[in-house]
Amino acid sequence: MAASKTPQWSSQWAFTLAAIGCSVGLGNLWRFSAEAGSNGGGAFIIVYLLCVLCIGIPALMAEYLVGRAGQATSCIRSMEDLATRSGHSRHWGIGVWIGAIAALLVMSFYAVVAAWVMDYIPRFLLGAFDGQTPQQIAAQFDELTKNPMRLMPSFLIFCGLTFWLVSRGVNRGIEMASKILMPTFFLLLVSLCIYSLITAASSGGTAEALNFMFAPDFNRIDTKVVVSALGQAFFSIGIGFAMMITYGSYLPQNISVPRSAFIVGLSDTGVALIAGMAIFPIVFHHGLDFNAGAGLFFETLPNALVSAPGGSIIGAAFFCMGLFAALTTGVALVEPTAAHLSDTLQWSKARSATVVGIAVTAVGFVCLFSLEFLDFLDTGLTAPIMLPLSALLVVSFVGWRLDRAIIDAQLSDKDRALGRFLMFFIRYVAPLMIAVILVAGIRDQYF
User: Fold this and answer.
1) How does pLDDT run across 47-78, given as a tens digit for each residue?
2) d(CA 321, CA 143)
3) What distance in Å separates the CA atoms of residue 220 and residue 392, rounded to the nearest whole number?
4) Smallest Cα–Cα separation from 390: which of 130, 79, 164?
5) Which of 225, 272, 239, 228 is nearest to 382 (CA)?
6) Domain map of the chain by residue range?
7) Half-sphere exposure of 364 toward its Cβ, with a 13 Å CA cutoff?
8) Which CATH architecture has domain 3-446?
9) What is the pTM of this model?
């Protein structure tokens, strides 16, 4: 497909919103807080920021480069064509294949988690948590996860809305949704952060939270903290799913690749930090456990908000925010494969989205009825193996196999110094650190 036939973002702003929506997900809202809470707070955050700068942003640039330089709607064909043009085997495309398949598997269980989020919005609005003890609130979540028939409508609505947006194409679907959902998401996030900081100030929870996050104890930094920060930086930004390659293929030539990588990477990090400032004051104010992972979202926060002023409205807003984050990420997870089918089989986007949607929904049904299968796809397959392996192959290709002339053609004169600076990290730092994530994930899961 010629470059002129490849869809394009209408502006830098449209791309930035879509790319941030692609990377910002539910993990920013609970995984970051849980990881920071269990790894020393400020010490973890310092290492995390360094990992974003040295690994996350360079890897983002690598994926954007493959997408725009390849100029094919199919992320897989972009990689294969670039390998051929650089004098290497088309089999380098296997890295993108792995990422695209991983994205669909993640979407299949992500939709189940999104259904949990959707179910909690009316629960807050209808007062389902009012007067409940912590044990009763925890029991509600446990009952929900074990009742797939109750979740079925929310699951199908989320899947249907996601695949409908993908079917509408880049500008009328993904871009339109991002322009509406992401500003609303940011408004809710900042509002909830302000509410949390003010509400917890009287008890000292705000001061404790800010001190915990931004006054690091460097003695807490050890191998465990570094590996955890590496993993959080990697998974938070959305590397290894092939979706950033696909979004990069829609980048017009007048938009800077390295600066876009910086904007998206730092914006994603900013969301995680603001989410931490929204969650930690509540946690300290109520003396709650911040190591609870998903339980932090579905058990700890409802327990804290049920007795807070306006808690029902705040809780509903918090879960609406989570739903918006889930939806923009879900669209991005589906787009690589849908775009690939449209490109290679000459299908309409609606047909491609429908076929992908049926397949993903079928796997999602299994996750809905089996939390063990959901957990296997998450912690046993995609996170420890497929995503880091895909990212490792992509950054290694860009760093060591992609023709220098192709890279230089994607960098304007004013971006050349920044681009070459990031290329140093793409070649020498990112592959090594992603390999550490891969080895650590396999070790922790299987040994």
Assistant:
1) 999 999 999 999 999 999 999 999 899 999 99
2) 23
3) 29
4) 79
5) 239
6) 3-446
7) 29
8) Orthogonal Bundle (1.10)
9) 0.94
